[in-house]
Design goal:
single chain; 187 residues; mainly alpha; two-stranded antiparallel ribbon; 7 helices; 64% helix; Hydrogenase_cytochrome
Length: 187
């Protein structure tokens, strides 16, 4: 279960210098590999060309490592620590709507749902991208359209994810983007 730290309405600051390592190197490397890969493949590299495919395989490999790490990794990396039940997700969203959501060290239930959705979309994009290289699916328009639709869905959810991270950073007075760089959050 993810550790509850501070109520948003209470906002009592923690003791100065009290920090805890939340995001381990595997989680951070996965996050920034996916960010870089998506930016490259959505905006810079030519669809279907060799560099595009290589980046896709790197992202697929990072996803495979992250899935394994979700069962074997550190406390906050494990799916068991943060995958929300529907009831926890609804309760969190209700608390958020009223400005009383708890600050959590790991993923909050909404962030966890977003992460799982993004990982599922990444798996779909990787699978359809790989399938498009097979003779059995060569030139199939439906596959290319599905691949593009999934990639565009990733873009939309990634923008929503980034906006939520900025919102939570302001709301809980901590830089969540920087914590994904360093791995540290305030206790």
């Amino acid at each position: 279960m993810t550790e509850r730290v501070v109520q948003a309405g209470g906002r009592a600051p923690p003791a100065a210098g009290a920090r805890v390592r939340v995001w381990d190197p595997v989680v951070r490397l996965f996050h920034w590999t996916v960010v870089t890969g998506c930016v490259l493949n959505l905006f810079i590299l030519e669809d279907g060309e060799s560099p595009h495919r290589i980046v896709g395989y790197v992202v697929a490999g990072a996803l495979a490592v992250r899935l394994v790490w979700g069962f074997t990794g550190t406390k906050y990396a494990r799916f068991a620590d943060f995958v929300p039940t529907p009831a926890r997700l609804v309760a969190y969203v209700r608390a958020l709507r009223h400005g009383h959501e708890p600050r959590l060290l790991g993923h909050n239930p909404a962030g966890a749902a977003m992460m799982l959705a993004l990982m599922a979309l990444l798996a779909g994009v990787c699978l359809t991208g790989w399938m498009s290289t097979l003779d059995a699916f060569w030139g199939e328009d439906w596959l290319e359209e599905l691949h593009e639709t999934l990639a565009n869905a990733i873009l939309v959810l990634a923008l929503l994810h980034a906006a939520a991270a900025l919102f939570e950073s302001v709301r809980h007075r901590e830089n969540l983007v920087w914590s994904m760089v360093t791995g540290w959050k305030r206790r």
